[in-house]
């Protein structure tokens, strides 16, 4: 999860603290427009991929595979941003110097050994870790909405983020169309992603036993969440901005069941776009001309100090890594390429879990989350 900037002034319909109807107070993370982008950016890609994948013809299959290829590339390219935020910021690096120095030294040899030995355990570990990381980002954004509105249960937010997802994964694996789509689009998924899906499909016998209990649990969680929000409305502090984001998350799960391949593209797209948007806003918050202490934060203070520099940084960053990735795929041995990809992915997943803890007062301040008075 990434740090978000301080909220804008209140008093306009798109401000983080604009009053809504009776019983609600709308508190956006950024603004109406930006938050809608965070919530619904996946929808056009889902519609496009679903439309292309419906006709089962070679031409439409190639078009679908092309969309999938570009989406997976974008997903891959957003991961090194974490390394830029860590190693380009002196203050951030000093906070956990030992972690940021020793993790690559230890992790890269382990990943190298696992890839060269062709250990099968890499696939399920990578699948579970990637799923957890992606969903944890959505959970984190949901918690920000809750904390800005000063109500909500941590346990319920976590449950509504994970239990319906687990139920949908079980349902998707049991759908007959999933295996058919896997056969059609295996090349677009890539060997690793295809192996992860095949692993899930091979567990169908187990999923038959857990699908119904998971569905029941999902209904129970959603009913409990609805009761919480109803109580918040009665108390006059419900946050419709949170409802909007939760609705987008649930709609994304429905999309996965309607068309698994298009839903997967949408799920990956949502994660990558969310990350890029919040990183861009974080660059403004931390290194913009109005940011306090930006001058002593290292390379990023120079590279992201103005709007033009920030755009140039992000565009240049993605362009360079895209060229490198496309060139490496055709030149490097497969094992070497996988070692690089897995290493960057591991550092991205691991570092994000440490550097964006909103429970820390400084990070909470960047999110615009009200400070909690110290206990007496």
From TrEMBL:
<keyword id="KW-0472">Membrane</keyword>
<keyword id="KW-0812">Transmembrane</keyword>
<feature type="transmembrane region" description="Helical">
    <location>
        <begin position="299"/>
        <end position="324"/>
    </location>
</feature>
<feature type="transmembrane region" description="Helical">
    <location>
        <begin position="245"/>
        <end position="278"/>
    </location>
</feature>
<feature type="transmembrane region" description="Helical">
    <location>
        <begin position="330"/>
        <end position="351"/>
    </location>
</feature>
<protein>
    <submittedName>
        <fullName>Uncharacterized protein</fullName>
    </submittedName>
</protein>
<feature type="transmembrane region" description="Helical">
    <location>
        <begin position="99"/>
        <end position="132"/>
    </location>
</feature>
<feature type="transmembrane region" description="Helical">
    <location>
        <begin position="37"/>
        <end position="55"/>
    </location>
</feature>
<feature type="transmembrane region" description="Helical">
    <location>
        <begin position="206"/>
        <end position="225"/>
    </location>
</feature>
<feature type="transmembrane region" description="Helical">
    <location>
        <begin position="67"/>
        <end position="87"/>
    </location>
</feature>
<keyword id="KW-1133">Transmembrane helix</keyword>
<feature type="region of interest" description="Disordered">
    <location>
        <begin position="1"/>
        <end position="22"/>
    </location>
</feature>
């Amino acid at each position: 999860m990434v740090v978000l900037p301080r909220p804008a002034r209140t008093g306009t319909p798109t401000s983080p603290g604009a009053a809504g109807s009776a019983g609600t107070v709308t508190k956006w993370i950024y603004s109406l427009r930006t938050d809608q982008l965070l919530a619904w950016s996946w929808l056009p890609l889902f519609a496009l991929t679903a439309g292309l994948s419906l006709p089962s013809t070679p031409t439409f299959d190639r078009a679908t595979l092309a969309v999938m290829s570009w989406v997976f590339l974008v997903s891959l390219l957003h991961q090194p941003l974490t390394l830029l935020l860590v190693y380009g910021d002196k203050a951030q690096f000093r906070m956990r110097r030992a972690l940021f120095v020793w993790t690559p030294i230890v992790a890269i040899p382990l990943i190298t050994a696992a890839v060269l030995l062709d250990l099968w355990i890499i696939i399920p570990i990578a699948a579970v870790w990637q799923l957890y990381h992606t969903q944890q980002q959505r959970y984190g954004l949901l918690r920000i909405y809750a904390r800005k509105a000063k109500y909500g249960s941590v346990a319920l937010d976590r449950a509504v983020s994970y239990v319906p997802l687990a139920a949908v994964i079980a349902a998707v694996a049991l759908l007959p169309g999933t295996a058919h789509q896997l056969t059609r689009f295996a090349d677009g998924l890539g060997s690793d992603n295809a192996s992860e899906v095949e692993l899930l499909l091979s567990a169908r016998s187990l999923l038959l036993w857990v699908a119904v209990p998971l569905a029941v649990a999902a209904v129970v969680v959603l009913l409990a969440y609805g009761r919480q929000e109803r109580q918040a409305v009665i108390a006059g502090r419900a946050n419709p901005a949170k409802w909007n984001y939760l609705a987008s998350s649930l709609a994304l799960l429905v999309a996965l069941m309607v068309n698994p391949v298009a839903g997967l593209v949408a799920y990956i797209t949502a994660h990558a776009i969310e990350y890029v948007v919040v990183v861009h806003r974080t660059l403004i918050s931390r290194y913009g001309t109005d940011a306090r202490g930006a001058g002593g934060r290292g390379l990023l203070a120079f590279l992201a100090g103005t709007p033009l520099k920030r755009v140039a940084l992000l565009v240049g960053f993605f362009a360079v890594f895209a060229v490198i990735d496309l060139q490496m795929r055709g030149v490097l041995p497969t094992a070497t390429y996988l070692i690089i990809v897995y290493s960057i992915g591991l550092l991205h997943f691991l570092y994000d879990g440490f550097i964006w803890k909103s429970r820390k007062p400084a990070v909470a301040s960047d999110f615009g989350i009200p400070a909690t008075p110290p206990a007496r």
